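Sequence and structure are no longer studied apart. As an example, we show below a sequence and the C-alpha coordinates encoding its fold:
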Amino acid sequence: MYDLVIIGAGWAGFNAALRAKELGLKTALMERSAIGGTCLNSGCIPTKTLIQSAKSYVQIKKSKSFGITIPSGPEINFSEIQSRKAKIILQLKNGMESMLRGVDILHGEAVISGPQEVDLYGEKISTRSILIASGSIPVELSNLRYDGKKIISSNELLLLSELPESLLIVGGGVIGCEFASLFSALGVRVTIAEYASRLLPGMDSDVSRKLENCFRKKGIQVVTGADIATFDLSVFTYVAVCAGRKPYFEGLQLEKIGVKTTNSGGIIVDDFLRSSVPGIFAAGDCASKIMLAHFASYEGRLAVENIASPGKEKKVSFENIPACVFTDPEIAAVGLTEEQARERGIKISVKKFDFLGSGMARILDETDGFIKIVIDTTAETICGASIIGPRATELISLVSCAVQSRMPLQQFKTTIIPHPSISEAIIETVR
Protein backbone atom coordinates (compact mmCIF):
# COMPACT_ATOMS: atom_id res chain seq x y z
CA MET A 1 0.00 0.00 0.00
CA TYR A 2 1.16 3.50 -0.84
CA ASP A 3 1.03 6.40 1.60
CA LEU A 4 0.09 8.68 -1.27
CA VAL A 5 -0.99 8.43 -4.89
CA ILE A 6 -0.72 11.64 -6.89
CA ILE A 7 -2.72 11.89 -10.10
CA GLY A 8 -1.10 14.29 -12.56
CA ALA A 9 2.59 15.08 -13.01
CA GLY A 10 2.27 18.76 -13.84
CA TRP A 11 3.72 21.47 -11.65
CA ALA A 12 1.40 20.73 -8.71
CA GLY A 13 1.85 16.95 -8.89
CA PHE A 14 5.59 17.07 -9.55
CA ASN A 15 6.32 19.36 -6.61
CA ALA A 16 3.93 17.39 -4.42
CA ALA A 17 5.86 14.22 -5.25
CA LEU A 18 9.17 15.88 -4.38
CA ARG A 19 7.78 17.04 -1.04
CA ALA A 20 6.35 13.58 -0.34
CA LYS A 21 9.75 12.08 -1.08
CA GLU A 22 11.39 14.52 1.36
CA LEU A 23 8.88 13.56 4.04
CA GLY A 24 9.51 9.86 3.53
CA LEU A 25 6.08 8.96 2.14
CA LYS A 26 5.82 5.94 -0.13
CA THR A 27 4.45 7.66 -3.22
CA ALA A 28 3.18 6.84 -6.69
CA LEU A 29 2.88 9.55 -9.33
CA MET A 30 0.41 8.81 -12.13
CA GLU A 31 0.47 10.61 -15.47
CA ARG A 32 -1.67 9.92 -18.54
CA SER A 33 0.53 11.92 -20.89
CA ALA A 34 3.97 13.46 -20.34
CA ILE A 35 5.86 14.36 -17.17
CA GLY A 36 5.70 18.11 -16.62
CA GLY A 37 2.07 18.58 -17.58
CA THR A 38 0.89 21.75 -19.29
CA CYS A 39 3.64 23.98 -17.91
CA LEU A 40 6.50 22.01 -19.40
CA ASN A 41 4.89 20.60 -22.53
CA SER A 42 2.32 23.12 -23.77
CA GLY A 43 2.45 26.15 -21.52
CA CYS A 44 5.06 28.14 -19.62
CA ILE A 45 8.28 26.61 -20.91
CA PRO A 46 7.56 26.27 -24.66
CA THR A 47 5.86 29.66 -24.78
CA LYS A 48 8.73 31.47 -23.08
CA THR A 49 11.28 29.62 -25.20
CA LEU A 50 9.62 30.90 -28.38
CA ILE A 51 9.30 34.37 -26.84
CA GLN A 52 13.04 34.43 -26.14
CA SER A 53 13.76 33.63 -29.78
CA ALA A 54 11.46 36.47 -30.82
CA LYS A 55 13.19 38.84 -28.39
CA SER A 56 16.59 37.85 -29.76
CA TYR A 57 15.38 38.55 -33.29
CA VAL A 58 14.10 42.00 -32.29
CA GLN A 59 17.35 42.77 -30.46
CA ILE A 60 19.47 41.79 -33.45
CA LYS A 61 17.34 44.04 -35.68
CA LYS A 62 18.21 46.92 -33.34
CA SER A 63 21.93 46.13 -33.43
CA LYS A 64 22.79 49.26 -35.41
CA SER A 65 21.74 51.44 -32.46
CA PHE A 66 24.34 49.57 -30.37
CA GLY A 67 27.07 50.26 -32.94
CA ILE A 68 26.91 46.82 -34.54
CA THR A 69 26.17 46.40 -38.24
CA ILE A 70 24.90 43.13 -39.72
CA PRO A 71 25.17 43.57 -43.51
CA SER A 72 22.61 41.00 -44.64
CA GLY A 73 20.28 41.34 -41.66
CA PRO A 74 18.85 38.56 -39.46
CA GLU A 75 16.62 35.82 -40.87
CA ILE A 76 14.06 33.69 -39.06
CA ASN A 77 14.38 29.92 -39.25
CA PHE A 78 11.16 28.90 -37.52
CA SER A 79 11.88 25.18 -37.72
CA GLU A 80 15.14 25.76 -35.82
CA ILE A 81 13.26 27.84 -33.26
CA GLN A 82 10.84 24.96 -32.77
CA SER A 83 13.72 22.47 -32.55
CA ARG A 84 15.32 24.52 -29.80
CA LYS A 85 12.02 24.52 -27.92
CA ALA A 86 11.74 20.72 -28.19
CA LYS A 87 15.33 20.29 -26.98
CA ILE A 88 14.76 22.45 -23.91
CA ILE A 89 11.57 20.58 -23.03
CA LEU A 90 13.39 17.24 -23.30
CA GLN A 91 16.30 18.44 -21.15
CA LEU A 92 13.98 19.69 -18.43
CA LYS A 93 11.86 16.53 -18.58
CA ASN A 94 14.93 14.37 -18.10
CA GLY A 95 15.94 16.52 -15.17
CA MET A 96 12.50 16.18 -13.57
CA GLU A 97 12.51 12.41 -13.97
CA SER A 98 15.93 12.28 -12.34
CA MET A 99 14.67 14.32 -9.38
CA LEU A 100 11.74 11.91 -8.99
CA ARG A 101 13.92 8.88 -8.31
CA GLY A 102 12.43 7.11 -5.33
CA VAL A 103 8.89 7.91 -6.47
CA ASP A 104 7.05 5.27 -8.51
CA ILE A 105 6.04 6.86 -11.83
CA LEU A 106 3.05 5.08 -13.34
CA HIS A 107 1.85 5.98 -16.84
CA GLY A 108 -1.78 5.56 -17.84
CA GLU A 109 -5.40 6.59 -17.37
CA ALA A 110 -6.30 6.58 -13.68
CA VAL A 111 -9.77 6.02 -12.27
CA ILE A 112 -10.43 6.73 -8.60
CA SER A 113 -12.48 3.73 -7.52
CA GLY A 114 -12.61 4.60 -3.83
CA PRO A 115 -11.20 6.92 -1.13
CA GLN A 116 -8.18 4.66 -0.84
CA GLU A 117 -8.03 2.98 -4.24
CA VAL A 118 -7.00 3.96 -7.74
CA ASP A 119 -7.60 1.77 -10.78
CA LEU A 120 -4.91 1.86 -13.46
CA TYR A 121 -5.89 -0.25 -16.46
CA GLY A 122 -7.57 -2.81 -14.22
CA GLU A 123 -4.85 -2.92 -11.58
CA LYS A 124 -6.17 -1.90 -8.16
CA ILE A 125 -3.66 0.30 -6.35
CA SER A 126 -4.23 0.85 -2.64
CA THR A 127 -3.23 4.06 -0.91
CA ARG A 128 -3.85 5.87 2.35
CA SER A 129 -4.35 9.25 0.61
CA ILE A 130 -4.96 10.57 -2.88
CA LEU A 131 -3.93 13.95 -4.31
CA ILE A 132 -5.64 15.01 -7.54
CA ALA A 133 -3.44 17.35 -9.56
CA SER A 134 -4.88 16.79 -13.03
CA GLY A 135 -4.49 20.37 -14.25
CA SER A 136 -6.50 22.27 -16.85
CA ILE A 137 -7.20 22.53 -20.58
CA PRO A 138 -7.92 25.46 -22.94
CA VAL A 139 -11.47 26.83 -22.88
CA GLU A 140 -13.45 26.27 -26.09
CA LEU A 141 -16.01 28.88 -27.12
CA SER A 142 -19.42 27.70 -28.32
CA ASN A 143 -19.24 29.91 -31.42
CA LEU A 144 -15.61 29.01 -32.17
CA ARG A 145 -15.23 25.27 -31.96
CA TYR A 146 -11.71 23.94 -32.49
CA ASP A 147 -11.27 22.25 -35.85
CA GLY A 148 -7.47 21.89 -35.81
CA LYS A 149 -7.25 23.58 -39.20
CA LYS A 150 -8.40 27.18 -38.96
CA ILE A 151 -9.67 27.54 -35.42
CA ILE A 152 -7.02 26.36 -32.99
CA SER A 153 -6.15 26.38 -29.31
CA SER A 154 -2.99 27.65 -27.65
CA ASN A 155 -1.71 24.06 -27.65
CA GLU A 156 -1.86 23.85 -31.44
CA LEU A 157 -0.47 27.36 -31.83
CA LEU A 158 2.72 26.19 -30.13
CA LEU A 159 3.10 23.33 -32.61
CA LEU A 160 2.92 25.30 -35.87
CA SER A 161 5.61 24.23 -38.32
CA GLU A 162 5.50 27.50 -40.25
CA LEU A 163 4.79 31.11 -39.36
CA PRO A 164 1.32 32.12 -40.56
CA GLU A 165 0.75 35.21 -42.67
CA SER A 166 -1.95 36.49 -40.33
CA LEU A 167 -3.37 35.57 -36.95
CA LEU A 168 -6.53 36.52 -35.08
CA ILE A 169 -6.17 35.97 -31.35
CA VAL A 170 -9.47 35.77 -29.50
CA GLY A 171 -8.89 36.75 -25.90
CA GLY A 172 -6.78 39.57 -24.49
CA GLY A 173 -5.77 37.92 -21.24
CA VAL A 174 -2.28 36.72 -20.34
CA ILE A 175 -2.14 33.89 -22.91
CA GLY A 176 -3.55 35.96 -25.76
CA CYS A 177 -1.27 38.93 -25.10
CA GLU A 178 1.84 36.76 -24.92
CA PHE A 179 1.06 35.12 -28.25
CA ALA A 180 0.21 38.48 -29.84
CA SER A 181 3.58 39.88 -28.77
CA LEU A 182 5.46 36.74 -29.84
CA PHE A 183 4.04 36.34 -33.34
CA SER A 184 4.04 40.06 -34.11
CA ALA A 185 7.77 40.18 -33.26
CA LEU A 186 8.33 37.36 -35.77
CA GLY A 187 6.62 39.33 -38.54
CA VAL A 188 3.10 37.88 -38.43
CA ARG A 189 0.18 40.28 -38.98
CA VAL A 190 -1.66 40.03 -35.65
CA THR A 191 -5.10 41.13 -34.50
CA ILE A 192 -6.08 40.63 -30.87
CA ALA A 193 -9.76 40.79 -29.90
CA GLU A 194 -10.90 41.12 -26.28
CA TYR A 195 -14.53 41.10 -25.12
CA ALA A 196 -13.79 43.37 -22.14
CA SER A 197 -13.12 47.09 -22.43
CA ARG A 198 -9.34 46.62 -22.13
CA LEU A 199 -6.58 44.06 -22.44
CA LEU A 200 -5.55 42.21 -19.27
CA PRO A 201 -8.78 43.19 -17.48
CA GLY A 202 -7.60 41.72 -14.17
CA MET A 203 -4.50 43.89 -13.96
CA ASP A 204 -3.84 47.55 -13.22
CA SER A 205 -5.67 49.77 -15.72
CA ASP A 206 -2.62 52.01 -16.32
CA VAL A 207 -0.62 48.91 -17.26
CA SER A 208 -3.37 47.74 -19.62
CA ARG A 209 -3.46 51.10 -21.40
CA LYS A 210 0.32 51.17 -21.71
CA LEU A 211 0.40 47.68 -23.21
CA GLU A 212 -2.30 48.58 -25.73
CA ASN A 213 -0.25 51.61 -26.80
CA CYS A 214 2.89 49.50 -27.12
CA PHE A 215 1.02 46.88 -29.14
CA ARG A 216 -0.37 49.46 -31.54
CA LYS A 217 3.10 50.96 -32.05
CA LYS A 218 4.32 47.49 -33.03
CA GLY A 219 1.56 47.17 -35.62
CA ILE A 220 -0.74 44.86 -33.64
CA GLN A 221 -4.40 45.64 -34.22
CA VAL A 222 -6.08 45.79 -30.81
CA VAL A 223 -9.87 45.48 -30.65
CA THR A 224 -11.49 45.80 -27.22
CA GLY A 225 -15.19 45.48 -26.48
CA ALA A 226 -15.03 43.00 -29.35
CA ASP A 227 -17.92 40.98 -30.78
CA ILE A 228 -16.31 38.08 -32.59
CA ALA A 229 -19.45 37.64 -34.72
CA THR A 230 -18.54 40.88 -36.54
CA PHE A 231 -15.14 39.55 -37.70
CA ASP A 232 -14.53 38.05 -41.13
CA LEU A 233 -12.56 34.99 -40.10
CA SER A 234 -11.73 34.09 -43.70
CA VAL A 235 -9.10 36.85 -43.91
CA PHE A 236 -6.94 35.25 -41.23
CA THR A 237 -4.64 32.26 -41.67
CA TYR A 238 -5.53 31.05 -38.18
CA VAL A 239 -7.97 31.99 -35.45
CA ALA A 240 -6.39 31.18 -32.09
CA VAL A 241 -8.85 30.99 -29.21
CA CYS A 242 -7.06 32.10 -26.04
CA ALA A 243 -10.07 32.54 -23.76
CA GLY A 244 -8.50 31.05 -20.66
CA ARG A 245 -8.34 27.56 -19.21
CA LYS A 246 -10.70 25.32 -17.27
CA PRO A 247 -10.15 22.53 -14.71
CA TYR A 248 -9.63 19.06 -16.15
CA PHE A 249 -10.27 15.69 -14.51
CA GLU A 250 -12.05 13.74 -17.24
CA GLY A 251 -12.04 10.00 -16.70
CA LEU A 252 -11.33 10.06 -12.97
CA GLN A 253 -15.05 9.38 -12.29
CA LEU A 254 -15.15 11.73 -9.32
CA GLU A 255 -18.94 11.80 -9.24
CA LYS A 256 -19.09 8.07 -8.47
CA ILE A 257 -17.17 8.45 -5.23
CA GLY A 258 -18.78 11.73 -4.18
CA VAL A 259 -16.04 14.27 -4.88
CA LYS A 260 -17.94 17.54 -5.34
CA THR A 261 -17.20 20.08 -8.05
CA THR A 262 -18.31 23.65 -8.75
CA ASN A 263 -20.68 24.74 -11.52
CA SER A 264 -17.64 26.05 -13.41
CA GLY A 265 -16.04 22.61 -13.18
CA GLY A 266 -13.40 22.91 -10.49
CA ILE A 267 -12.96 20.43 -7.65
CA ILE A 268 -14.28 21.90 -4.41
CA VAL A 269 -11.65 21.94 -1.65
CA ASP A 270 -11.55 23.52 1.80
CA ASP A 271 -8.86 25.85 3.18
CA PHE A 272 -6.59 22.84 3.67
CA LEU A 273 -7.06 21.51 0.10
CA ARG A 274 -9.26 18.62 1.28
CA SER A 275 -12.04 17.53 -1.07
CA SER A 276 -15.52 16.49 0.04
CA VAL A 277 -14.27 12.89 0.42
CA PRO A 278 -11.96 12.22 3.40
CA GLY A 279 -8.47 11.24 2.33
CA ILE A 280 -8.76 12.84 -1.11
CA PHE A 281 -7.06 16.20 -1.67
CA ALA A 282 -6.76 18.38 -4.78
CA ALA A 283 -4.25 21.04 -5.80
CA GLY A 284 -3.34 23.20 -8.78
CA ASP A 285 -5.48 24.20 -11.75
CA CYS A 286 -8.06 21.44 -11.27
CA ALA A 287 -9.13 22.95 -7.92
CA SER A 288 -7.79 26.50 -7.70
CA LYS A 289 -9.16 29.89 -8.62
CA ILE A 290 -5.57 30.96 -9.37
CA MET A 291 -4.19 29.13 -12.41
CA LEU A 292 -0.47 29.85 -12.18
CA ALA A 293 2.32 27.27 -12.24
CA HIS A 294 4.11 28.70 -9.20
CA PHE A 295 0.86 28.74 -7.23
CA ALA A 296 0.16 25.14 -8.27
CA SER A 297 3.63 24.21 -7.01
CA TYR A 298 2.89 25.89 -3.67
CA GLU A 299 -0.46 24.13 -3.36
CA GLY A 300 1.01 20.75 -4.25
CA ARG A 301 3.64 21.01 -1.53
CA LEU A 302 1.14 22.33 1.00
CA ALA A 303 -1.32 19.52 0.29
CA VAL A 304 1.37 16.90 0.95
CA GLU A 305 2.40 18.60 4.18
CA ASN A 306 -1.22 18.55 5.32
CA ILE A 307 -1.55 14.88 4.36
CA ALA A 308 1.60 14.05 6.32
CA SER A 309 0.61 16.05 9.42
CA PRO A 310 -3.06 15.44 10.31
CA GLY A 311 -4.18 17.81 13.03
CA LYS A 312 -1.44 20.31 12.12
CA GLU A 313 -2.74 21.34 8.71
CA LYS A 314 -1.95 24.78 7.27
CA LYS A 315 -4.42 26.89 5.34
CA VAL A 316 -3.76 27.84 1.76
CA SER A 317 -3.18 31.56 1.23
CA PHE A 318 -4.37 33.37 -1.86
CA GLU A 319 -2.78 36.68 -0.89
CA ASN A 320 0.14 38.34 -2.67
CA ILE A 321 0.66 35.82 -5.47
CA PRO A 322 2.91 37.37 -8.14
CA ALA A 323 1.65 37.27 -11.72
CA CYS A 324 3.77 37.70 -14.85
CA VAL A 325 3.02 38.38 -18.51
CA PHE A 326 5.92 37.72 -20.89
CA THR A 327 4.98 40.28 -23.51
CA ASP A 328 7.32 42.93 -24.89
CA PRO A 329 7.47 44.96 -22.71
CA GLU A 330 7.14 42.47 -19.85
CA ILE A 331 4.46 42.89 -17.20
CA ALA A 332 4.37 41.73 -13.59
CA ALA A 333 2.25 42.44 -10.52
CA VAL A 334 1.87 41.41 -6.90
CA GLY A 335 -0.58 42.31 -4.16
CA LEU A 336 -3.29 44.90 -4.72
CA THR A 337 -3.73 47.21 -7.68
CA GLU A 338 -4.57 50.85 -7.05
CA GLU A 339 -8.21 50.14 -7.88
CA GLN A 340 -8.43 47.14 -5.55
CA ALA A 341 -6.84 49.01 -2.65
CA ARG A 342 -9.30 51.89 -3.00
CA GLU A 343 -12.23 49.46 -3.21
CA ARG A 344 -11.11 47.98 0.12
CA GLY A 345 -11.04 51.43 1.70
CA ILE A 346 -7.28 51.36 2.33
CA LYS A 347 -5.65 54.77 2.65
CA ILE A 348 -2.96 54.72 0.00
CA SER A 349 -0.38 56.75 -1.79
CA VAL A 350 0.74 55.77 -5.28
CA LYS A 351 4.36 56.09 -6.38
CA LYS A 352 5.34 55.87 -10.03
CA PHE A 353 8.69 55.70 -11.80
CA ASP A 354 9.16 55.89 -15.57
CA PHE A 355 11.91 53.74 -17.04
CA LEU A 356 13.06 56.76 -19.04
CA GLY A 357 14.75 57.76 -15.78
CA SER A 358 16.70 54.51 -15.46
CA GLY A 359 20.32 54.52 -16.60
CA MET A 360 20.31 50.74 -17.16
CA ALA A 361 17.05 50.89 -19.12
CA ARG A 362 18.70 53.40 -21.44
CA ILE A 363 21.78 51.19 -21.74
CA LEU A 364 19.52 48.29 -22.73
CA ASP A 365 17.48 50.59 -24.98
CA GLU A 366 14.32 49.41 -23.22
CA THR A 367 12.78 52.54 -21.73
CA ASP A 368 9.13 51.87 -22.53
CA GLY A 369 7.19 51.36 -19.29
CA PHE A 370 6.96 52.22 -15.63
CA ILE A 371 6.84 50.93 -12.07
CA LYS A 372 3.76 51.64 -9.98
CA ILE A 373 3.84 50.93 -6.25
CA VAL A 374 0.81 51.18 -3.95
CA ILE A 375 1.64 52.10 -0.35
CA ASP A 376 -0.64 51.57 2.64
CA THR A 377 -0.08 54.91 4.41
CA THR A 378 -1.60 53.68 7.67
CA ALA A 379 0.54 50.55 8.00
CA GLU A 380 3.51 52.17 6.22
CA THR A 381 4.00 49.09 4.06
CA ILE A 382 3.77 48.25 0.37
CA CYS A 383 0.43 46.59 -0.41
CA GLY A 384 0.92 46.10 -4.13
CA ALA A 385 2.93 46.82 -7.23
CA SER A 386 2.51 46.69 -11.00
CA ILE A 387 5.39 46.88 -13.45
CA ILE A 388 5.52 47.15 -17.23
CA GLY A 389 8.94 47.38 -18.74
CA PRO A 390 12.38 45.72 -18.92
CA ARG A 391 12.91 42.68 -16.68
CA ALA A 392 9.52 43.18 -15.02
CA THR A 393 9.09 39.44 -14.47
CA GLU A 394 12.33 39.38 -12.46
CA LEU A 395 11.87 42.74 -10.70
CA ILE A 396 8.57 41.67 -9.17
CA SER A 397 10.33 39.19 -6.89
CA LEU A 398 12.02 42.03 -5.03
CA VAL A 399 8.66 43.66 -4.33
CA SER A 400 7.03 40.30 -3.55
CA CYS A 401 9.44 39.77 -0.67
CA ALA A 402 8.53 43.17 0.77
CA VAL A 403 4.77 42.67 0.31
CA GLN A 404 4.64 39.14 1.70
CA SER A 405 6.86 39.92 4.70
CA ARG A 406 5.08 43.24 5.33
CA MET A 407 8.48 44.89 5.44
CA PRO A 408 8.31 48.42 6.94
CA LEU A 409 8.48 50.98 4.16
CA GLN A 410 11.40 52.80 5.74
CA GLN A 411 13.43 49.59 5.81
CA PHE A 412 12.62 48.92 2.16
CA LYS A 413 13.62 52.46 1.19
CA THR A 414 17.05 52.06 2.75
CA THR A 415 17.83 48.75 1.04
CA ILE A 416 21.06 49.10 -0.93
CA ILE A 417 20.69 47.97 -4.54
CA PRO A 418 23.58 47.74 -7.05
CA HIS A 419 24.10 50.55 -9.57
CA PRO A 420 23.61 50.61 -12.48
CA SER A 421 20.81 48.06 -12.54
CA ILE A 422 17.18 47.83 -13.50
CA SER A 423 16.28 46.74 -9.96
CA GLU A 424 17.44 50.03 -8.39
CA ALA A 425 14.41 51.62 -10.06
CA ILE A 426 12.22 49.77 -7.51
CA ILE A 427 13.86 51.62 -4.62
CA GLU A 428 13.81 54.90 -6.53
CA THR A 429 10.05 54.51 -6.95
CA VAL A 430 9.29 54.43 -3.22
CA ARG A 431 11.82 57.18 -2.46
About this structure: The chain has a mean pLDDT of 96.
